[in-house]
Protein backbone atom coordinates (compact mmCIF):
# COMPACT_ATOMS: atom_id res chain seq x y z
CA UNK A 1 0.00 0.00 0.00
CA UNK A 2 2.91 2.35 0.73
CA UNK A 3 4.44 1.68 -2.69
CA UNK A 4 1.10 2.22 -4.43
CA UNK A 5 0.44 5.41 -2.47
CA UNK A 6 3.90 6.77 -3.30
CA UNK A 7 3.49 5.97 -7.00
CA UNK A 8 6.27 3.36 -7.22
CA UNK A 9 3.73 0.78 -8.35
CA UNK A 10 1.59 2.72 -10.83
CA UNK A 11 -0.80 0.61 -12.85
CA UNK A 12 -2.13 3.79 -14.45
CA UNK A 13 1.35 4.76 -15.67
CA UNK A 14 1.84 1.37 -17.29
CA UNK A 15 -1.57 1.37 -18.94
CA UNK A 16 -1.40 4.95 -20.23
CA UNK A 17 2.06 4.24 -21.68
CA UNK A 18 0.70 1.17 -23.50
CA UNK A 19 -2.32 3.11 -24.80
CA UNK A 20 -0.15 6.01 -25.96
CA UNK A 21 2.37 3.75 -27.69
CA UNK A 22 -0.28 1.73 -29.50
CA UNK A 23 -2.10 4.86 -30.67
CA UNK A 24 1.21 6.51 -31.65
CA UNK A 25 2.25 3.54 -33.78
CA UNK A 26 -1.09 3.56 -35.60
CA UNK A 27 -1.06 7.31 -36.18
CA UNK A 28 2.59 7.45 -37.20
CA UNK A 29 2.11 4.61 -39.70
CA UNK A 30 -0.85 6.39 -41.28
CA UNK A 31 0.89 9.79 -41.34
CA UNK A 32 4.13 8.30 -42.70
CA UNK A 33 2.22 6.54 -45.50
CA UNK A 34 0.42 9.77 -46.37
CA UNK A 35 3.63 11.82 -46.33
CA UNK A 36 5.38 9.21 -48.49
CA UNK A 37 2.46 9.33 -50.92
CA UNK A 38 2.73 13.13 -51.02
CA UNK A 39 6.49 12.97 -51.52
CA UNK A 40 6.32 10.46 -54.37
CA UNK A 41 3.61 12.40 -56.17
CA UNK A 42 5.26 15.75 -55.46
CA UNK A 43 8.53 14.60 -57.04
CA UNK A 44 6.63 13.08 -59.95
CA UNK A 45 4.73 16.35 -60.39
CA UNK A 46 8.01 18.25 -60.52
CA UNK A 47 9.42 15.95 -63.20
CA UNK A 48 6.24 16.10 -65.29
CA UNK A 49 6.16 19.91 -65.12
CA UNK A 50 9.80 20.05 -66.20
CA UNK A 51 9.09 17.78 -69.17
CA UNK A 52 6.03 19.77 -70.22
CA UNK A 53 7.76 23.16 -69.92
CA UNK A 54 10.83 22.11 -71.91
CA UNK A 55 8.78 20.38 -74.63
CA UNK A 56 5.83 22.72 -75.03
CA UNK A 57 6.64 26.10 -73.50
CA UNK A 58 10.33 27.08 -73.54
CA UNK A 59 12.87 27.07 -76.32
CA UNK A 60 16.49 25.99 -75.90
CA UNK A 61 18.45 27.19 -73.94
CA UNK A 62 15.66 26.89 -71.40
CA UNK A 63 15.05 29.98 -69.30
CA UNK A 64 11.79 30.50 -67.44
CA UNK A 65 12.37 34.26 -67.57
CA UNK A 66 11.45 34.31 -71.28
CA UNK A 67 7.80 34.03 -70.17
CA UNK A 68 7.88 37.35 -68.32
CA UNK A 69 5.25 39.77 -69.58
CA UNK A 70 3.89 37.00 -71.85
CA UNK A 71 0.29 36.97 -70.70
CA UNK A 72 -0.92 34.58 -73.39
CA UNK A 73 1.97 32.17 -72.93
CA UNK A 74 1.50 32.02 -69.15
CA UNK A 75 -2.27 31.57 -69.51
CA UNK A 76 -1.81 28.70 -71.97
CA UNK A 77 0.78 27.05 -69.73
CA UNK A 78 -1.55 27.26 -66.72
CA UNK A 79 -4.52 25.91 -68.66
CA UNK A 80 -2.49 22.94 -69.91
CA UNK A 81 -1.14 21.99 -66.49
CA UNK A 82 -4.56 22.06 -64.83
CA UNK A 83 -5.42 18.38 -65.34
CA UNK A 84 -2.02 17.31 -64.04
CA UNK A 85 -2.42 19.36 -60.87
CA UNK A 86 -6.02 18.28 -60.28
CA UNK A 87 -5.10 14.64 -60.76
CA UNK A 88 -2.33 14.84 -58.17
CA UNK A 89 -4.67 16.49 -55.66
CA UNK A 90 -7.26 13.72 -55.93
CA UNK A 91 -4.73 10.87 -55.97
CA UNK A 92 -3.08 12.08 -52.77
CA UNK A 93 -6.34 13.23 -51.12
CA UNK A 94 -4.61 16.56 -50.43
CA UNK A 95 -6.52 19.74 -49.64
CA UNK A 96 -4.60 21.64 -52.31
CA UNK A 97 -1.94 21.50 -55.00
CA UNK A 98 0.19 24.28 -56.48
CA UNK A 99 2.89 25.12 -59.00
CA UNK A 100 4.56 28.52 -58.98
CA UNK A 101 7.22 29.65 -61.44
CA UNK A 102 9.97 32.25 -61.27
CA UNK A 103 8.29 34.61 -63.71
CA UNK A 104 5.50 37.22 -63.69
CA UNK A 105 2.93 38.49 -66.12
CA UNK A 106 3.82 42.14 -65.54
CA UNK A 107 7.30 43.20 -64.47
CA UNK A 108 6.22 46.80 -64.15
CA UNK A 109 3.51 46.12 -61.59
CA UNK A 110 4.06 47.67 -58.10
CA UNK A 111 4.73 44.30 -56.42
CA UNK A 112 6.38 42.60 -59.38
CA UNK A 113 9.50 41.76 -57.35
CA UNK A 114 7.52 39.31 -55.21
CA UNK A 115 4.76 38.40 -57.68
CA UNK A 116 5.12 35.04 -59.41
CA UNK A 117 2.89 33.26 -61.89
CA UNK A 118 1.39 29.86 -61.27
CA UNK A 119 -1.68 27.80 -60.36
CA UNK A 120 -3.00 26.95 -56.91
CA UNK A 121 -6.02 24.63 -56.65
CA UNK A 122 -7.84 23.99 -53.39
CA UNK A 123 -10.74 21.77 -52.46
CA UNK A 124 -14.02 23.54 -52.08
CA UNK A 125 -15.41 21.37 -49.25
CA UNK A 126 -13.86 19.21 -46.55
CA UNK A 127 -16.39 17.51 -44.30
CA UNK A 128 -15.99 14.53 -42.01
CA UNK A 129 -12.76 13.45 -43.71
CA UNK A 130 -14.66 13.16 -47.00
CA UNK A 131 -13.03 15.18 -49.76
CA UNK A 132 -15.57 16.36 -52.30
CA UNK A 133 -14.71 16.84 -55.95
CA UNK A 134 -15.47 20.57 -56.07
CA UNK A 135 -12.31 22.56 -56.68
CA UNK A 136 -11.55 26.27 -56.24
CA UNK A 137 -9.00 28.29 -58.18
CA UNK A 138 -7.06 30.01 -55.41
CA UNK A 139 -4.22 31.42 -57.52
CA UNK A 140 -3.90 31.62 -61.31
CA UNK A 141 -5.39 33.03 -64.47
CA UNK A 142 -9.21 33.17 -64.24
CA UNK A 143 -9.47 31.54 -67.68
CA UNK A 144 -8.27 28.34 -66.02
CA UNK A 145 -11.42 28.35 -63.89
CA UNK A 146 -13.72 29.18 -66.77
CA UNK A 147 -12.21 26.58 -69.11
CA UNK A 148 -12.45 23.82 -66.51
CA UNK A 149 -15.79 24.96 -65.07
CA UNK A 150 -14.58 25.45 -61.48
CA UNK A 151 -15.25 28.27 -59.04
CA UNK A 152 -12.85 31.06 -58.19
CA UNK A 153 -12.01 31.32 -54.49
CA UNK A 154 -13.38 34.41 -52.76
CA UNK A 155 -9.76 35.25 -51.76
CA UNK A 156 -8.41 34.66 -55.28
CA UNK A 157 -5.32 36.43 -56.61
CA UNK A 158 -3.84 36.37 -60.07
CA UNK A 159 -0.32 35.50 -58.90
CA UNK A 160 1.54 34.23 -55.85
CA UNK A 161 3.13 36.63 -53.39
CA UNK A 162 6.50 35.06 -52.56
CA UNK A 163 6.79 37.19 -49.43
CA UNK A 164 4.28 34.71 -47.99
CA UNK A 165 6.43 31.82 -49.27
CA UNK A 166 9.67 32.37 -47.37
CA UNK A 167 11.17 29.13 -48.72
CA UNK A 168 10.65 30.00 -52.41
CA UNK A 169 13.90 31.88 -53.06
CA UNK A 170 16.03 29.26 -51.34
CA UNK A 171 14.54 26.38 -53.33
CA UNK A 172 14.97 28.06 -56.71
CA UNK A 173 18.51 29.21 -55.94
CA UNK A 174 21.07 27.81 -58.39
CA UNK A 175 23.40 27.21 -55.44
CA UNK A 176 21.29 24.20 -54.58
CA UNK A 177 22.82 21.38 -56.59
CA UNK A 178 20.84 18.51 -55.05
CA UNK A 179 18.24 16.59 -57.02
CA UNK A 180 14.51 17.08 -56.38
CA UNK A 181 14.38 13.81 -54.46
CA UNK A 182 16.96 15.18 -52.02
CA UNK A 183 15.72 18.77 -51.90
CA UNK A 184 12.01 18.43 -51.10
CA UNK A 185 10.90 20.05 -47.85
CA UNK A 186 7.97 19.87 -45.48
CA UNK A 187 7.12 23.50 -44.89
CA UNK A 188 6.08 24.61 -41.42
CA UNK A 189 2.52 25.69 -40.82
CA UNK A 190 1.70 28.82 -42.81
CA UNK A 191 -1.31 31.09 -42.48
CA UNK A 192 -3.01 31.50 -45.85
CA UNK A 193 -3.27 35.20 -46.46
CA UNK A 194 -6.75 36.74 -46.25
CA UNK A 195 -8.24 33.46 -44.96
CA UNK A 196 -8.77 31.89 -41.53
CA UNK A 197 -6.93 28.72 -42.54
CA UNK A 198 -3.49 27.34 -41.65
CA UNK A 199 -1.73 24.76 -43.77
CA UNK A 200 1.54 22.88 -44.09
CA UNK A 201 3.08 22.12 -47.46
CA UNK A 202 5.26 19.68 -49.30
CA UNK A 203 7.52 21.78 -51.52
CA UNK A 204 9.61 20.36 -54.37
CA UNK A 205 11.80 22.47 -56.69
CA UNK A 206 11.06 22.26 -60.42
CA UNK A 207 14.54 21.76 -61.90
CA UNK A 208 15.28 21.80 -65.62
CA UNK A 209 17.35 19.23 -67.48
CA UNK A 210 20.16 21.80 -67.71
CA UNK A 211 20.05 22.52 -63.97
CA UNK A 212 18.00 25.71 -64.16
CA UNK A 213 15.35 26.41 -61.54
CA UNK A 214 11.91 27.00 -63.01
CA UNK A 215 10.01 27.27 -59.73
CA UNK A 216 8.48 25.03 -57.09
CA UNK A 217 5.46 22.77 -56.82
CA UNK A 218 3.84 20.74 -54.11
CA UNK A 219 0.83 19.70 -52.09
CA UNK A 220 -1.08 21.19 -49.19
CA UNK A 221 -2.47 19.68 -45.97
CA UNK A 222 -4.80 22.17 -44.36
CA UNK A 223 -5.32 22.35 -40.61
CA UNK A 224 -8.97 21.45 -41.08
CA UNK A 225 -8.14 18.38 -43.15
CA UNK A 226 -5.61 17.23 -40.56
CA UNK A 227 -8.13 17.65 -37.71
CA UNK A 228 -10.76 15.66 -39.60
CA UNK A 229 -8.26 13.00 -40.67
CA UNK A 230 -6.97 12.49 -37.12
CA UNK A 231 -9.87 12.83 -34.68
CA UNK A 232 -9.49 12.59 -30.94
CA UNK A 233 -9.09 9.09 -29.53
CA UNK A 234 -11.18 8.57 -26.43
CA UNK A 235 -9.47 6.71 -23.59
CA UNK A 236 -10.26 6.36 -19.90
CA UNK A 237 -7.44 8.84 -19.24
CA UNK A 238 -8.90 11.52 -21.50
CA UNK A 239 -8.92 12.35 -25.21
CA UNK A 240 -5.67 11.57 -27.02
CA UNK A 241 -4.58 14.23 -29.50
CA UNK A 242 -2.38 13.58 -32.56
CA UNK A 243 0.21 16.25 -33.40
CA UNK A 244 2.72 16.61 -36.22
CA UNK A 245 5.41 19.23 -35.71
CA UNK A 246 9.18 19.81 -35.98
CA UNK A 247 11.37 19.04 -32.97
CA UNK A 248 14.15 21.36 -31.88
CA UNK A 249 16.33 21.30 -28.73
CA UNK A 250 13.85 19.71 -26.35
CA UNK A 251 10.81 21.48 -27.77
CA UNK A 252 7.90 20.29 -29.87
CA UNK A 253 7.29 23.27 -32.17
CA UNK A 254 3.52 23.09 -32.21
CA UNK A 255 3.31 26.66 -33.53
CA UNK A 256 4.85 25.33 -36.75
CA UNK A 257 2.85 22.11 -36.98
CA UNK A 258 -0.70 20.81 -37.03
CA UNK A 259 -2.95 19.30 -34.40
CA UNK A 260 -5.71 16.75 -34.78
CA UNK A 261 -9.07 17.06 -33.11
CA UNK A 262 -8.51 17.83 -29.40
CA UNK A 263 -11.69 17.06 -27.46
CA UNK A 264 -11.23 17.70 -23.73
CA UNK A 265 -7.41 17.82 -24.03
CA UNK A 266 -7.23 21.43 -25.16
CA UNK A 267 -3.82 22.41 -26.55
CA UNK A 268 -2.97 25.91 -27.73
CA UNK A 269 -1.61 25.41 -31.25
CA UNK A 270 0.29 28.71 -31.14
CA UNK A 271 2.35 27.82 -28.05
CA UNK A 272 5.33 25.47 -28.39
CA UNK A 273 5.64 22.59 -25.95
CA UNK A 274 8.72 21.94 -23.81
CA UNK A 275 9.57 18.24 -23.44
CA UNK A 276 10.53 16.63 -20.14
CA UNK A 277 11.66 13.18 -21.26
CA UNK A 278 10.72 10.30 -18.96
CA UNK A 279 11.38 6.55 -18.85
CA UNK A 280 7.75 5.58 -19.47
CA UNK A 281 6.28 8.65 -21.12
CA UNK A 282 7.19 12.31 -21.67
CA UNK A 283 5.71 15.33 -19.97
CA UNK A 284 4.93 18.28 -22.26
CA UNK A 285 4.17 21.73 -20.94
CA UNK A 286 3.73 25.35 -21.97
CA UNK A 287 2.14 28.45 -20.51
CA UNK A 288 -1.33 27.05 -21.17
CA UNK A 289 -1.11 23.61 -19.66
CA UNK A 290 0.62 20.32 -19.03
CA UNK A 291 0.32 17.07 -20.95
CA UNK A 292 1.74 13.58 -21.05
CA UNK A 293 2.53 11.69 -24.22
CA UNK A 294 5.02 9.95 -26.49
CA UNK A 295 6.55 10.88 -29.82
CA UNK A 296 8.58 9.48 -32.71
CA UNK A 297 10.44 11.26 -35.48
CA UNK A 298 9.55 10.71 -39.15
CA UNK A 299 12.41 9.47 -41.31
CA UNK A 300 13.19 11.75 -44.24
CA UNK A 301 10.87 14.57 -43.15
CA UNK A 302 12.67 17.90 -42.55
CA UNK A 303 11.60 21.52 -42.62
CA UNK A 304 13.38 24.44 -44.33
CA UNK A 305 15.70 24.84 -41.31
CA UNK A 306 16.74 21.20 -41.22
CA UNK A 307 14.60 20.23 -38.21
CA UNK A 308 13.10 16.78 -38.26
CA UNK A 309 9.34 16.35 -38.06
CA UNK A 310 7.80 14.14 -35.41
CA UNK A 311 4.43 12.61 -34.62
CA UNK A 312 3.27 12.93 -31.01
CA UNK A 313 0.23 11.67 -29.12
CA UNK A 314 -0.74 13.73 -26.06
CA UNK A 315 -3.35 13.61 -23.32
CA UNK A 316 -4.20 16.21 -20.69
CA UNK A 317 -2.09 15.74 -17.56
CA UNK A 318 -4.94 16.87 -15.29
CA UNK A 319 -7.30 14.27 -16.76
CA UNK A 320 -4.69 11.56 -16.35
CA UNK A 321 -3.84 12.69 -12.83
CA UNK A 322 -7.50 12.62 -11.78
CA UNK A 323 -7.94 9.12 -13.18
CA UNK A 324 -4.67 7.96 -11.64
CA UNK A 325 -5.68 9.32 -8.21
CA UNK A 326 -9.00 7.52 -8.43
CA UNK A 327 -7.37 4.23 -9.43
CA UNK A 328 -4.74 4.65 -6.72
CA UNK A 329 -7.43 5.21 -4.09
CA UNK A 330 -9.36 2.18 -5.31
CA UNK A 331 -6.20 0.07 -5.20
CA UNK A 332 -5.48 1.17 -1.64
CA UNK A 333 -9.06 0.36 -0.62
CA UNK A 334 -8.80 -3.07 -2.23
CA UNK A 335 -5.47 -3.75 -0.54
CA UNK A 336 -6.86 -2.56 2.80
CA UNK A 337 -9.89 -4.84 2.54
CA UNK A 338 -7.66 -7.70 1.43
CA UNK A 339 -5.32 -7.13 4.38
CA UNK A 340 -8.22 -7.07 6.84
CA UNK A 341 -9.67 -10.28 5.40
CA UNK A 342 -6.26 -11.95 5.54
CA UNK A 343 -5.82 -10.79 9.14
CA UNK A 344 -9.20 -12.26 10.09
CA UNK A 345 -8.40 -15.54 8.34
CA UNK A 346 -5.00 -15.64 10.06
CA UNK A 347 -6.67 -15.05 13.43
CA UNK A 348 -9.15 -17.88 12.83
CA UNK A 349 -6.38 -20.23 11.66
CA UNK A 350 -4.31 -19.30 14.71
CA UNK A 351 -7.18 -20.02 17.06
CA UNK A 352 -8.05 -23.33 15.42
CA UNK A 353 -4.63 -24.72 14.60
CA UNK A 354 -1.70 -22.81 16.05
CA UNK A 355 -2.99 -22.64 19.64
CA UNK A 356 -3.48 -26.43 19.97
CA UNK A 357 0.07 -26.92 18.61
CA UNK A 358 1.47 -24.50 21.19
CA UNK A 359 -0.44 -26.23 24.03
CA UNK A 360 0.80 -29.62 22.87
CA UNK A 361 4.43 -28.42 22.78
CA UNK A 362 4.11 -26.83 26.22
CA UNK A 363 2.71 -30.12 27.56
CA UNK A 364 5.73 -31.97 26.19
CA UNK A 365 8.03 -29.68 28.16
CA UNK A 366 6.62 -30.89 31.51
CA UNK A 367 8.30 -33.71 33.38
CA UNK A 368 5.13 -35.74 33.77
CA UNK A 369 3.76 -35.30 30.23
CA UNK A 370 3.59 -39.08 29.86
CA UNK A 371 1.02 -39.24 32.66
CA UNK A 372 -1.43 -37.00 30.76
CA UNK A 373 -3.83 -38.64 28.35
CA UNK A 374 -5.18 -35.51 26.65
CA UNK A 375 -4.95 -35.30 22.84
CA UNK A 376 -4.47 -32.06 20.90
CA UNK A 377 -6.23 -33.13 17.70
CA UNK A 378 -3.09 -32.29 15.71
CA UNK A 379 -1.88 -35.58 14.23
CA UNK A 380 1.82 -34.67 14.24
CA UNK A 381 1.80 -33.52 17.90
CA UNK A 382 -0.18 -36.57 19.05
CA UNK A 383 2.21 -38.94 17.23
CA UNK A 384 5.23 -37.20 18.80
CA UNK A 385 3.63 -37.40 22.27
CA UNK A 386 2.93 -41.11 21.84
CA UNK A 387 6.51 -41.71 20.70
CA UNK A 388 7.99 -39.89 23.71
CA UNK A 389 5.68 -41.75 26.09
CA UNK A 390 6.91 -45.06 24.70
CA UNK A 391 10.54 -43.94 25.03
CA UNK A 392 9.90 -42.83 28.62
CA UNK A 393 8.31 -46.16 29.51
CA UNK A 394 11.20 -48.09 27.95
CA UNK A 395 13.68 -45.97 29.82
CA UNK A 396 11.93 -46.49 33.15
CA UNK A 397 11.59 -50.22 32.50
CA UNK A 398 15.37 -50.56 32.48
CA UNK A 399 15.54 -49.85 36.20
CA UNK A 400 17.86 -47.57 38.19
CA UNK A 401 21.50 -46.88 37.41
CA UNK A 402 23.83 -49.62 38.83
CA UNK A 403 25.12 -48.83 42.31
CA UNK A 404 28.81 -48.83 41.31
CA UNK A 405 28.07 -46.30 38.51
CA UNK A 406 26.03 -44.26 40.95
CA UNK A 407 29.01 -44.21 43.36
CA UNK A 408 31.35 -43.02 40.61
CA UNK A 409 28.98 -40.17 39.76
CA UNK A 410 28.63 -39.26 43.43
CA UNK A 411 32.40 -39.25 43.91
CA UNK A 412 32.93 -37.14 40.75
CA UNK A 413 30.33 -34.62 41.85
CA UNK A 414 31.81 -34.49 45.38
CA UNK A 415 35.32 -33.93 44.02
CA UNK A 416 34.06 -31.08 41.80
CA UNK A 417 33.25 -29.11 44.94
CA UNK A 418 36.97 -28.83 45.69
CA UNK A 419 37.62 -26.88 42.46
CA UNK A 420 38.59 -23.25 42.68
CA UNK A 421 36.49 -20.54 41.01
CA UNK A 422 38.83 -20.38 37.98
CA UNK A 423 38.84 -24.15 37.63
CA UNK A 424 35.07 -24.28 37.94
CA UNK A 425 34.75 -21.70 35.17
CA UNK A 426 36.90 -23.81 32.88
CA UNK A 427 34.81 -26.90 33.70
CA UNK A 428 31.64 -24.93 32.95
CA UNK A 429 32.97 -24.08 29.48
CA UNK A 430 33.77 -27.76 28.86
CA UNK A 431 30.20 -28.63 29.79
CA UNK A 432 29.00 -26.03 27.27
CA UNK A 433 31.09 -27.81 24.57
CA UNK A 434 33.98 -25.35 24.32
CA UNK A 435 37.42 -26.43 23.18
CA UNK A 436 40.71 -25.71 24.98
CA UNK A 437 41.84 -23.32 22.22
CA UNK A 438 38.81 -21.10 22.86
CA UNK A 439 39.38 -20.66 26.60
CA UNK A 440 42.24 -18.10 26.60
CA UNK A 441 40.07 -15.54 24.80
CA UNK A 442 37.00 -16.34 26.88
CA UNK A 443 38.84 -16.11 30.21
CA UNK A 444 41.43 -13.49 29.22
CA UNK A 445 44.32 -15.74 30.31
CA UNK A 446 47.16 -17.44 28.52
CA UNK A 447 47.05 -20.95 27.12
CA UNK A 448 49.72 -22.07 29.62
CA UNK A 449 47.50 -20.93 32.48
CA UNK A 450 44.63 -22.93 31.01
CA UNK A 451 46.81 -26.02 30.84
CA UNK A 452 47.88 -25.50 34.45
CA UNK A 453 44.23 -25.32 35.54
CA UNK A 454 43.49 -28.44 33.48
CA UNK A 455 46.11 -30.46 35.36
CA UNK A 456 44.58 -29.36 38.69
CA UNK A 457 41.09 -30.26 37.47
CA UNK A 458 42.18 -33.73 36.31
CA UNK A 459 43.91 -34.36 39.65
CA UNK A 460 40.99 -33.20 41.80
CA UNK A 461 38.35 -35.05 39.74
CA UNK A 462 40.36 -38.21 39.42
CA UNK A 463 40.57 -38.31 35.61
CA UNK A 464 43.63 -38.71 33.44
CA UNK A 465 42.67 -36.80 30.25
CA UNK A 466 40.27 -34.41 28.61
CA UNK A 467 38.53 -37.31 26.86
CA UNK A 468 37.85 -39.08 30.17
CA UNK A 469 36.54 -35.82 31.63
CA UNK A 470 34.20 -35.43 28.64
CA UNK A 471 32.83 -38.94 29.18
CA UNK A 472 31.84 -38.05 32.73
CA UNK A 473 30.24 -34.83 31.52
CA UNK A 474 28.21 -36.62 28.82
CA UNK A 475 27.03 -39.34 31.22
CA UNK A 476 25.95 -36.82 33.85
CA UNK A 477 24.04 -34.91 31.18
CA UNK A 478 22.26 -38.08 30.08
CA UNK A 479 21.36 -38.95 33.67
CA UNK A 480 20.12 -35.46 34.35
CA UNK A 481 22.66 -34.79 37.12
CA UNK A 482 24.92 -32.26 35.42
CA UNK A 483 23.21 -29.47 37.31
CA UNK A 484 24.75 -30.80 40.53
CA UNK A 485 28.18 -29.77 39.28
CA UNK A 486 27.02 -26.34 38.13
CA UNK A 487 25.28 -25.41 41.36
UniProtKB/TrEMBL annotation:
One of its GO terms (molecular function) is DNA binding. Residues 416-473 form the HTH luxR-type domain. The keyword Membrane applies. It holds the Pfam family GerE. GO terms for biological process: regulation of DNA-templated transcription. The chain crosses the membrane at residues 329-349. It comes from the Bacteria. Keywords: Membrane, Transmembrane, Transmembrane helix. InterPro entries: Sig_transdc_resp-reg_C-effctor, Tscrpt_reg_LuxR_C, WH-like_DNA-bd_sf. This is Transcriptional regulator, LuxR family. It comes from Lachnoanaerobaculum saburreum F0468.
Amino acid sequence: MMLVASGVFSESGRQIEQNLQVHLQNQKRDIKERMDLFTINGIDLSKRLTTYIEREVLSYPYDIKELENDEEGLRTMQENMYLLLEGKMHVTRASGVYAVFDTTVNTSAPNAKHSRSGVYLRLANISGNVLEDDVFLFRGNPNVAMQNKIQIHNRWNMEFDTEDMYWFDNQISTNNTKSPTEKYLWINRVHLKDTWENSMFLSVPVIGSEGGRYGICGLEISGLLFRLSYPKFESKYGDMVTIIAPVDQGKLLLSKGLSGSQGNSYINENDDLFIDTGKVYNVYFNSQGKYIGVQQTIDGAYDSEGRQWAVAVLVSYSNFEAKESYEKAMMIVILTVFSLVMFLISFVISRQFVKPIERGIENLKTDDFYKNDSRTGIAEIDILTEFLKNKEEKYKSKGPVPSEIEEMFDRFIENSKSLTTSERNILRYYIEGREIAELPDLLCISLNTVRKHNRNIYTKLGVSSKDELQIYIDLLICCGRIHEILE
